Amino acid sequence: MERYIDVPFTKETAAELKAGDLVYLTGTIYTARDAAHKRLQEALERGEELPFDPAGNVIYYMGPSPAREGRAIGSAGPTTASRMDKYTPALLDLGLRGMIGKGRRSAAVREAVIRNGAVYFAAIGGAGALLSKSILESGVIAYEDLGTEAIRRLTVKNFPAIVCMDGSGDDLYETAAEQYRKE
Questions:
Q1: Which of 41, 100, 150, 177 registers the highest number of CB atoms within 10 A of its CB?
Q2: Hey, what long-range contacts does 168-172 have (CB within 8 A, 24 or more apart)?
């Protein structure tokens, strides 16, 4: 099914999304990769506020290339999501509604997705230049010293993603592989 949704979004909206759905996201999303996730975790351990409220929001596992003239951002392709798996359950428990990356997720992430009614989206790897066309604005909001791994706030319009894991735990990486083996 093809869906257009505004971000941030609610748990009720997440519950309507099913593994395999093609979704176009419009609104605000945040970027964070390994180093930023480590700092977020350390901030949580110290009892500090995070640089953005994860509740209802989406994190895109991406570190952009420099913007070309007239563009908000350079190439903006996804990175491998499993590198953030050790940090993800804590963010989901704070209300993070979605993540965008590529590749499989751990059992702990799957359990946290189900527990919190969240969604894991995949963006097409290797299509960073095309994906960047859906990004209207980009600005660093935290950890500027991390360069491309700094946390950014992005304004997106019709950003394409595929629901790879829905709130019931259905995982497209598993079901697609099973279907392929049967054919």
A1: 100
A2: 168/114, 169/110, 169/113, 169/114, 170/18, 170/19, 171/19, 171/104, 171/105, 171/110, 172/19, 172/20, 172/122
CA-CA distance, 154 to 134, in Å (whole number)?
A: 10
Closest by CA position to 81, among listed 53, 122, 50? 122
Tell me how many helices (H) and strands (E) the chain has.
6, 7
Select from 64, 112, 66 the least CA-distant residue to 86: 112
- Summarised one tens digit per residue, pLDDT across range 129-182 is 889 999 999 999 999 999 999 999 999 999 999 999 999 999 998 886 666 566
Q: Is 37 a catalytic residue?
A: yes
